[in-house]
Amino acid sequence: MTRLSGSGDDQSSGPGDDSLSVALEIADAVDGLANLWSVAAQGASLRLSPHQLRALRVLESEPGLNLTALAESLDIGPPTASRLCDRLEAAGLLERLLHPHRRREVQIVLTGRGRQVLNEVAARRSQALAAVLAAMGPGERSALSGGLRAFLSAQDQSDKEGDGPRG
Asked: What is the CA radius of gyration of the chain?
């Protein structure tokens, strides 16, 4: 778990906690969610690495990217993106097609199987998350939902003001 002191005995003083204490609690929750997300994805019929899943999600949201654009979206080099695409293409999850208007450019698109795998992973993740949420009381779920909305709103405002991290 995420603890500054390393002792694991950090105590919260309640709802008015300072930002750092709340940030540490959220970091622990994010670690748990990331683990839940990863385990759920690995239970799919086709196991993919986080990088492979991310590449498929990028191609789902931006069909027809070329290799350079995909590499930039994933923040990896073109040779690494090319090897990643080779593996995904061999698995039947994406295909490379000639661009209809620029003969020297190749587009990368998901196949039906690629969409199917993404849908399966999304369903497994939703089911795993729903199981955890079901263990919470209605008031806790409502509070969590409201807190997440407030967080996203504050994050959006921070990004608009130029205060947010650049990624």
From this structure: 20
